[in-house]
Amino acid sequence: MTRTCRSVFGLAAVAMWMMAVATQGQSAAHSSTKARVGVNGSGHAVREGAALGQIDVQQSDLLQKTIKNNWVSYNGDYTGRRFSSLSQVTPQNVSHLAAKWVFHTRNAGVLEVTPVVVAGVMFITGSNDAYALDARTGALLWHHARGVSSGLIDDASGHINRGVAVLGTRVYMETDNAHLLCLDARSGNLIWDVAYADNTQSYGATSAPLIVKDKVLVGTSGGDDGVRGFVAAFDVQTGKEVWRFWTIPAPGEKGSETWPVSEDYLLGGGTAWMPGTYDPELNTIYWGTGNAAPDYDGSVRPGDNLYTSSLVALDPDTGKLKWYFQFNPHDLYDYDSVQTPVLVDAMFRNKPRKLIVTANRNGFLYILDRATGEYLYSKQFMKRMNWAKGIDKNGRPISNNLIPDAKGVLVCPGIEGATNWYSPSYDPQTNMFYFRSLEACDVLQAKNVPFEQGRPYYSTGARTPPGSVASESYINAFDLTKLDFAWRDKQIGEGPAYAGVMTTAGGLVAFGNNASEFEMDDARTGKPLWAFRLGQPMHASPMSYAIAGKQYFAVAAGDDVFAFALP
Amino acid sequence: MTRNRFAVMLVCSFLVLFGRISAFGQDEPRSGPDQDHGAQLYASNCAYCHGADGRGGRGPAIATVPKVIAMSNQDLMGIVHKGEPDQGMPGFPDLGDPGTKAVVQYLRTLQGVTADGPPAKLAGDPDAGRQLFFGEGKCSTCHMILGKGGFMATELTSYARNRRADEILQAIVNPDANLEPTSRVANVRTREGQSLTGVVRAEDNLNITLQTEDGRYHFLSRSSLAAVNYSDHSLMPRDYGTRLTSGELDNLVAFLIVTSRHAPTEHAPAKRRWHHDD
């Protein structure tokens, strides 16, 4: 990359720079006063790292086994474990952690984004807007502005967006009306825009895309609005669709016997509204699916309703189903199962195994074999649970047969779930799985409402019964060696946060707490060590990155993104 | 797309109803009693928030936002009349119907929406302009249109939407006349004597970020620099006025205008740094 060039100053014109750019293989014939914008001489002294500021994400970056300076995707790596190998900030020095900058998006909503950082450049989204920032100062480098879509309903009308995927010099994001955008990472320019769901009001998208090899993978929201869920893969270069896996099989296909014989499978939900995870060695992607619809009224959809509220293991090249595991057959309680399926390589009952560990919205933590989908273990983590007695040896819940009706029935977990989409984390140093949980119950009422296009397909009435016990939130550390909780910290504050957790090699677990603060605890003991009040609701999961040897943490709260580092 | 076209049709039909505003293309917007009245009303009622040029201020931009441009006159008049209380915009019922119409008509001139029946005939050939843009003219080395081209300079898909042909021509032949801060070039010299030149993408009193032609951002602390020199010139070549014939320039202008007419309404160029019209 050594470049010889003259300064443009003192020359007659800057003008001819343009001719010199990107003309390799052509002759810049008319360039009489050629000047290039670039680094003079060897130039490296003006850069702080070989690749700082140069966005060019390679497959090898995406396949990194450890998260270091860069956080290249929504979850930071393909395992979804959100464990940063950065170790500069430790339980000993975390008390010195200080805010470095705030970026105000001026977005009307609450950000749910996890920032992606590559080569010192941070990419975030808010609604349909994308921003590139100097990750060291928060200064804006570019802003791709796109208005929110009008006429959307339900979830889509919230215009939520959880972030970008990056590959090469391109950034990918979904929009509230289920378009996949490809942007130039160096300018924010729109390269292509693919509408990937039927043009109804019901589909939306809130997730961050996932890059797997030469494809960019997306899902949708809208599972409670009368749609059929899917995961779709698009060519990273052209945006051409390569495959689409419908989460609800069509009549005649395997699994269709779990639905009534009707067209209702087209309304059955099961949307894939969070990013999946990927095991390159097994060449398998793992994707969680949402609840069946209508949510509390199962009378119109007798059967298990595959593959709703499930984990599906797909071939990333073809979208073909390898195996599935259904957490909530014939779900009646809106127990989406999109919580990150975290890939863990660990000893399980004295045998090294390739596992999936995931805490489900239904109140159970599951361990599966990710090569086969075999159910290995579950643990009830919600204390007040009443919807199931337990899990049988095949992994199927033993239901208490609470049926929401017109009068209503008290169900625990309630409408928000015992956990939700906010990120869990696995720390290989402690061999613990960390996640946020909620103890809350609701009275669920069902009414039979026929589907009407353009209206939500809820059969929902959910209310908190008067005089009910106050909800409680916990940050949990589940020890995979002992198969029991190492600690469970009851959260103190005004209300449950929708904020994920992450862990670091420095020995910290970081999360948004119930007092609108970004908090760091000792990962081994759960001891609270440091907190910084962000003063705004947190509906996002944190991440960590490093620039020039300095470790940063970043998290969104309200419509701002905050970054922290040691002085 | 169908919807967009529908919106454009609505705008057109209302413009026909409300009389001529101006012709599309190279003509100046017509000046007349209505427009002067509209300009006055705009200045006293709207400019405080939306900016004298409609590109935003305390309030959002209304002259450059595709969604607003695509709204029907009736919708815009409704907003002026009733306001958008949840967005913080008051209503202006006192303007009455004629005043509201005049304000919306004036906004249309700020937006450069100058359709009035069929567009005026373009002086150039847009297809030839396209060839020039992506070929010999080398415009696409730096500028992108509809996903094709470079990344250093402004994205131009909807560039011509609110600009007249003569303005576009001027921007090509005299690019530094209106040097945008986002196009500013600087050369810096480090204390070690090294030199770096790039487009200024972010700066404050302590730091300056330059982007070089390879796309790399250079995040520099001013304390590490011996000198920072800003150029009066953007990266845009200044010899297009002599290098291209007037016919070729007309072709380029025609290409940009035709492209912007067909640009999706949600298409807005990415911005470098905050603009007033965010």
Keywords:
heterodimer; A: 567 residues; mainly beta; Methanol Dehydrogenase, Chain A; 2 domains; five-stranded mixed β-sheet; disordered N terminus; B: alpha+beta; Cytochrome Bc1 Complex, Chain D, domain 2; five-stranded antiparallel β-sheet; two-stranded antiparallel sheet; 10 helices; 7 strands; 37% helix
Description:
- The complex is a heterodimer of chains A (567) and B (278).
- Chain A is an all-beta fold.
- Chain B contains ten helices and seven strands.
- Chain B is α+β, with helices and mostly antiparallel strands and 278 residues long.
- Chain B folds into three domains: 2-111, Cytochrome c-like domain (Cytochrome Bc1 Complex, Chain D, domain 2); 126-174 and 237-262, Cytochrome Bc1 Complex, Chain D, domain 2 (Orthogonal Bundle), CATH 1.10.760.10; 185-230, SH3 type barrels (Roll), CATH 2.30.30.100.
- Mean pLDDT of chain B is 80; it is low at 1-31 and 273-278.
- Chain B is globular and about 65 Å long.
- Chain B has a five-stranded antiparallel sheet, with no helix packed on it. A two-stranded antiparallel sheet of chain B has the order 1-2.
- Chains A and B meet through helix 1, strand 6, strand 9 and strand 10 of A and strand 3, strand 4, strand 5 and strand 6 of B.
